[in-house]
Amino acid sequence: MxxxxxxETDAHAEKRSGTIQSVSIATRFLSILADAxxxxxxxxxxxxxxxGRSTAHRYLQSLVKEGLAQQDPGTGLYDLGPTxxxxxxxxxxxxxxxxxxARHMKSLTHDHAMSGGVAIWTDRGPTLVRWxxxxxxxxxxxxxxxxxxxxxxxxxxxxxxxxxxxxxxxARKQQPTHFRGSAPDKATLxxxxxxxxxxxxxxxxxxxxxxxxxxxxxxxxxxxVATTVTDLGQLRAPEDREALLRExxxxxxxxxxxxxxxxxxxxAS
Length: 269
Prior knowledge:
Layout: H1 3-17, H2 21-35, H3 42-49, H4 53-65, E1 69-71, E2 78-80, H5 82-93, H6 97-111, E3 115-122, E4 125-132, H7 154-162, H8 165-172, H9 177-180, H10 186-195, E5 198-201, E6 208-216, E7 222-231, H11 238-255, H12 258-268
Helix pairs in contact: 2-4, 3-4, 6-11, 7-10, 11-12
């Protein structure tokens, strides 16, 4: 197919879909460059984008002209350009991980028999800054603004698994021994880091299960924790127990913690 035929095909596709097809195709090439572990040759870009080399060349040259891509003059390989970096940084500045997590948790508690919300780390330990009560869940020991035990909650375990020990130790001194619980061993925290998940039962109230998962930013630093409490009698299916982990993957994809989302989704597949 020559260039004129490709232009004609693009025009027909745009007319049929009601969208600007060229923007969609250009975005496809940018996404491929963003996901690549290294610079890519033109032929490889065309293969991954499922286009011809001439189409790939045309789009890549346009992207290079606008600074969205760049080409190494020595090797001819392509990578993201300075304009793409500028756009990405602008998007990162606008991300509010707590608000994103809150929207997802509100939806989760609406659809499942669990109450839940979002906790951030303060000098006194995990603190609930968003909390949603489930209409299906009768026993609810937590409320907005509550400080959670560091060692005796799933939320506390998740923070311990991902924060520097000096910050954990400082907060532990602020909590009474009978409140915070017993410090977890290294194997427990390693397991939380590996699975991206913590769960404890009958830790605050009998037959109540607490679950928690980390939310990361684009630098893979923990920003907050999504957490739930569930009456064991209300767990109707395995999907109820796994619902929080699935939601955490969606939240991390939106906040920039894509490495976490990919790892968890890969281990589940």
